[in-house]
Structures
1.
Amino acid sequence: MSEGMSLEHDWFPRPLPANVTIGERSWWYSSFACLHYRSRKPHGVRVGRDSGIYHGTFFELGPDGEVEIGDYCTLVGAIICTNSRVVIRDYTFIAHEVIIADRFAAQPLAEPGGPVPVGGGPSEIVIGENAWIGARAILLSGATIGEGAIVGAAAFVDFPVPPYAVVAGNPGRLVGRTR
Amino acid sequence: MNADELNDIVGGWDPAGLPTNIRVGAGCFLERKESFKRFRSRRNPGLALGDRVKVYTWTEFNVEPTGLVEVGDDSTLVGAVFMCAERIRIGKRVIVSYNVTIADCDFHPRDPDVRKADAMANAPQGDRSRRPVLEARPVVIEDDVWVGIGAILLKGVHIGRGARIGPGAVVTRSVLAEGAVLGNPARAVEFLELRSGKRRRS
């Protein structure tokens, strides 16, 4: 993991990894978000413009993990733990204590020099444009959230959610539509 | 942030400074010193970690003076919040994922009148000696159990060897060996393949 830029406002005394890029006018609270970051992909985390990555957000990426975040997204404390790919498209809100992971008993993916724990779904997780993920929701491999959909607070989703659907509960169920 | 403050949150601190009734096995990784801030056990040991146990930043050992937490070799505690009044025992090779709570006691009485008295005794300037005696029932998690993201395990549950606790499950009853549970309250599911997308909404 080579070193990238340092954030001016950062309290955590480490630079961001070199394969993290942040678009114009976007906010990233601290390099602490990369406490357990091991991505060796060309673009470990890419954040578009006008997006906010706020306190409590963590990118727990294994060597093959990568996250792409679009424009005008707001993440206020999600933990993304994957050795695969997570895509969060434009205008998405992700509330507090949400976990997005490639396995149900997720853990930080390999300490330096250690092996990556086995398991993990290979499929990428995609959160469509203009989606809204409620507090404490859990999204696992198999979850693809359609454009404009809502995932209710504390819902558990590991299946495709159609565009403009509303899902809630554990296990998650379709409970309505947004249009 | 100075070097000591950094070490305190990235596993660079010396566990020799922990209370003497905390036993730490060989090759453990203890990331954040604050995980032990609310450890108040007067038992010896009050916390016993086996060899090669990993304790990540979100874990908290909230252990009352009467409590004992034991964790077996090669277990991983990612975000395990322990609320322990008597005994919580975790076996070997157990994974406890993010945002998990494990409590062996409800910590407040069920009866509303007694609970009101507890609220007063528990006030910032309250008389803690007037707190009621609370029933605790130990929690046991056997070897090779995986506790999924966001699960809550409540007092008295026994989780059998190799069981799988689904994400967000609220576990109020024991789970058989090799069993799998999901939901709130947690119910047995026939085959919890939480990664394949086989379990569909129905």
Note: Chain A touches chain B through 37 residues (CB under 8 Å).
2.
Amino acid sequence: MSGAPPSYSFVALPPRAKDGLVVFGKNSARPRDEVQEVVYFPAVDHDAESKVECTYISIDQVPRTHAIVISRPAWLWGAEMGANEHGVCIANEAINAREPAAETEALLGMDLVRLGLERGTTAKEALDIIVSLLDEHGQGGNYYEDAHSCHSFQSAYLLVDRDEAWVLETVGKYWAAERITEGVRCICNHLSLATKLDEEHPELRTYAQSQGWWTGDDEFNFAQVFSPADDRLDCCAGQDSLEKQEESITVQTMINILRDKASGVCIDSESFLTTASIVSVLPQNRSSPCIHYFTGTPDPSRSIFKPFIFVDDVKLVPKAQSPCFGDDDPAKKEPRFQEKPDRRHELYKAHEWARAVIESDEEQGRTLRKTMLELEKQGLEAMDEILSSPEPPDPAEVGDLFYDCVDTEMKFFK
Amino acid sequence: MDEEYDVIVLGTGLTECILSGIMSVNGKKVLHMDRNPYYGGESSSITPLEELYKRFQILEGPPESMGRGRDWNVDLIPKFLMANGQLVKMLLYTEVTRYLDFKVVEGSFVYKGGKIYKVPSTETEALASNLMGMFEKRRFRKFLVFVANFDENDPKTFEGVDPQNTSMRDVYRKFDLGQDVIDFTGHALALYRTDDYLDQPCLETINRIKLYSESLARYGKSPYLYPLYGLGELPQGFARLSAIYGGTYMLNKPVDDIIMENGKVVGVKSEGEVARCKQLICDPSYIPDRVQKAGQVIRIICILSHPIKNTNDANSCQIIIPQNQVNRKSDIYVCMISYAHNVAAQGKYIAIASTTVETAEPEKEVEPALELLEPIDQKFVAISDLYEPIDDGSESQVFCSCSYDATTHFETTCNDIKDIYKRMAGSAFDFENMKRKQNDVFGEADQ
């Protein structure tokens, strides 16, 4: 069993988060050479009886899917994290549990993130959709684009909307969930649910008893029952980072946490890299828009967060999307992953130049870094104005917002 | 003297020297006189430095820290050349640049909220600048694309704007530009000194913004050029042009009287002799009874031992203080040049603050500019009257130039030249009029 990738997902709710804004963030840790893309899908009506091709399996499509914007490894169908037009954000975490994850191809955790976003109008509704699909189709399959080994994991999810957050942790088809209405919460690559369970699979406890993991006599503690024997249950660098913030949590706070390598929240190791990040701000006041910031490039400490706002005519951003190989994609053929095509998008390639400069040329690197942070700051300031404004933003003005920011960023990368 | 000329020119300011050159190239017999022993008049560069102190009656003269007096060439009128502007066109057509060297001014800055911001000179500089917020920048970019594409002869480029009727205020409104962006556009790009242009038809403003962009594109960095050894080189260059086409120059020649007969000029008397002419060109100082005062300009020449703060140690720059940043009607300008242009001793900088006078306390009016320049080693304060001619010369055939205004470029000067030319020659000025002819006396014709 290989170690689960050390991703971190965060939520802060008012009043712990500032100004009536729910703040959500995730660092996605994945294999170093993997490219993540940022993709927008508009809302679509679907034919009755139609199917949707997820990463490995095909399932029934619903009549209508919501507009979504997601960050995902370019080879798979689902998402590591993302948001929908209704202000729902979802992130997943790969987890090792006592019970090995199925290698049989089914739905990946990433597929369920996307399906939850496409179908749920609230965090709770998305949770119900995910557990229903889990029950119907199960979870399983390779999490990595690797022909030689199957890396499979159980999945946990952080689901957030303007009002509340839910932590959902799943083992096979069994699951437990906790509702969060205040304070801060982080989930990482360990089970974290303990005795406070607001929802659970109806057979969760009987299953645990039947496996001999729970006697039925003591209080049911989900993480204790389902974690591998050698897991250190109380360890979460992200939760520590979040809790020790003395000021109210803002978007900038969240960004700073995601950039922090000393705490281990930002990963740059031999096997894993934080390959993409997201921060979302969800105003409890519904007349303000939700704003979602994506990097689209590896390592948030060397990337900038760029804003996205849902409106009816969002401009597509080809430069942050990887090339599409259609049915010829080695990820779609069996046996899987016999080749590894170049999945780098234009922004990724431009950013490679910037990363090389930052690493090799101290003076030029520092100047470039400073310029990019200044650009990011201007974006954050503009978004703060939108959130402070009594009127919603002009859709014509924000439809090409993410497109423009990607385009601008690339102009600074030779 | 005691000869007959087509045109007599009095005063060797830039305007007069350019007109002298044009007239000579076009076959007129020209006599050019100046009461001073040097070229330039109001637009001269003062050298050595001791002369500047004397001129401003600072009796102790320059301290030793100023270095060799001969290293200094201090302009009395602070201006830069716009790289795609009319004066550069005149220089190129006349090939006067053959005798001159220019440097690109390193930057232009605009004052906002007590600080100065670089006027961006590249796209990435504009994107990185915090002179505007993100959404303002995006609207502004759309506006600039509109201006760049605008062609007054192609209605398809108009986007619903009427160049002769739509006011500039309405164009700004169409692009939803905020007040800060409007100030920046009108004062740092279109280089208007006041806000009167807002209610005028937009064509002139669009053309001015185009001029700025085209000048900027010429050399990068900034849209301005400056001649080594100072602006005084310019009138001399044009005077040389006039001379090689047969123009006669007399410096250090007092003008005792301008002789009129039946309301028409017939000659000039100097030291007892009379030179006769059909037409006369002069600057306002030669005909005080035929000009009227049109305001005042204050210019404060400051010598510094440091670049101006927040200009990235620029050796040369312009700073524009838009008038409503300091509750005035007219902008305040700062032009800074330095030893790098062979106009000052090593390590020294010359910054000149100027504006149109609006109150009885003009020095107080330029204080926001002087604060940007501190510490100042030495200040020279000049308050000049602005004159314009009373008559257009149609009867008198006396054509008087206007005084130099407070702008930091020569476009108004060139407009004055074109206007005088039209009144003298009876036809619109064409830059082709300045092209060298085959018959120049030194055989320097282009083949």
Note: Chain A has a mean pLDDT of 93.
